[in-house]
Design goal:
alpha+beta; globular; five-stranded antiparallel β-sheet; four-stranded antiparallel β-sheet
Length: about 325
């Protein structure tokens, strides 16, 4: 019965991928039960994570053989084997993640997963841009851009696994504030990882460099916080540099170093993330959504949104409109 349901699920996901670009009805009434635990929407190797209405996190329990071809998505993915293990390839490197271990797959990293019969695992997938903007994350950003493999020998592994299982319980509780509770637990996980990461930076000279940069990064993090809150305004690099007290050149370099993106890439990503939330949660016309998140041109909005998400804003909305019916 489970295999039959999984077969229907895969067939349904392929149907969604084909129809999402054509603005046709995506989900028939007899297919609606298949969306209860979420489904995969793919365009090439890019995956669009679908979330239930009140959360920006997904938890998948898989007790059966399973595999995912190479793909990537904007969310962070966490593999938590419960029985046996999984083989996960990230950026060309293969990790044999066993029960008792954890693997974090960074945002936008191409990865594939294979799990044979007799194994069991959780996958936890979550959006991170909106939540992880606190200044302490400045020192952790290099860590978060690479896979984090917690082996059974790591002292952090049992702590992180315990917190992640608490997150699973919170997710499955369906309480009104479960999204907040889940993200609070994720912050606890990354605090634990940060405590493990910072003392083990290559050498004392690098640690001194981190402390030096952190001491001068309050202004940058204030600028980042200002940008995250005022993304819909007419913010330019010059305006933000004046606010932070940096030169335009210095601020540009800090963006690249700490976020892995240019100023305009970060700003556009923030605007598109907020637009995606509005498109999935409101009935505002696409033009109004574009204006509310700071795009002065619908053509620019459509182009940037397609670059970030792989589809137009209207096509993105179609998925969520069907889920609400």
């Amino acid at each position: 019965m489970m295999e039959k349901r999984q077969g229907k699920m895969r067939k349904f996901a392929r149907k969604v991928c084909e129809e999402i670009m054509n603005n046709r009805r995506l989900i028939t009434e007899h297919e609606r039960p298949l969306t209860a635990s979420g489904f995969r929407v793919m365009k090439g190797e890019r995956e669009f994570i679908t979330y239930q209405r009140d959360v920006t996190i997904r938890v998948w329990h898989q007790p059966n053989p399973d595999s995912y071809a190479p793909h990537f998505h904007s969310a962070i993915e966490v593999c938590v084997p419960l029985l046996g293990g999984c083989e996960v390839a990230v950026k060309g490197k293969v990790y044999h993640v066993q029960a008792g271990e954890v693997l974090f797959v960074p945002s936008d990293a191409t990865h594939a997963l294979r799990m044979a019969a007799g194994n069991e695992r959780y996958l936890i997938i979550f959006e991170h841009n909106a939540a992880f903007t606190m200044k302490e994350f400045a020192a952790l950003r290099p860590m978060l851009r690479q896979p984090i493999y917690l082996t059974a020998e790591s002292e952090a592994t049992p702590i992180v696994r315990k917190t992640l299982m608490q997150l699973v319980d919170a997710y499955e509780a369906y309480t009104p504030l479960r999204n907040l509770r889940c993200y609070a637990l994720l912050m606890d996980v990354f605090a634990t990882l940060g405590e493990l990461y910072l003392p083990n930076v290559a050498n004392s000279a690098e640690m001194n460099d981190i402390h030096r940069r952190l001491s001068g990064e309050d202004a940058f993090n204030r600028a980042l916080d200002y940008l995250n809150k005022n993304y819909a305004e007419n913010i330019t690099l010059d305006v933000l540099a004046d606010y932070a007290g940096f030169s335009r050149y210095t601020l540009s370099r800090m963006f690249s170093r700490h976020t892995g993106a240019t100023f305009i890439q970060y700003l556009n990503a923030r605007r598109v993330d907020m637009a995606a939330e509005m498109l999935s949660q409101s009935d505002l016309p696409v033009t109004q959504v574009a204006l509310r998140v700071g795009f002065g041109s619908i053509a620019t909005f459509n182009r940037v949104f397609r670059t970030q998400k792989g589809c137009t804003p209207s096509q993105y909305r179609n998925v969520y409109l069907e889920l609400k019916k």
